[in-house]
Design goal:
This protein is an alpha+beta fold. It has one domain (7-73). Helix content is 18%, strand content 31%. The chain contains two helices and four strands. The longest helix has 11 residues, at 46-56.
Length: 83
Amino acid sequence: MRGSRHFLARTNDTLSLDSASVDDGVARVYLHGTLTGLRGACDHPRGRIQIEETARALPAVDSVVLYRNGRRTDLTPSGRGRG
């Protein structure tokens, strides 16, 4: 994914995937870094949604749990959510 119109492409330099696993239908995605590239309130849920929908494309995944810097998160900026 290249180009500034793709949210995740704008975060490549600041947010990276450490690992991911699936166990009993739950995908756990471990990220490291800082969430950047947000361009307003409509962008706030975009990272979470893109990652969750990508993980849910796997038949074995029923739900997704995100972690950033070792803590559970919903990737909401400014302390509005976990992490």
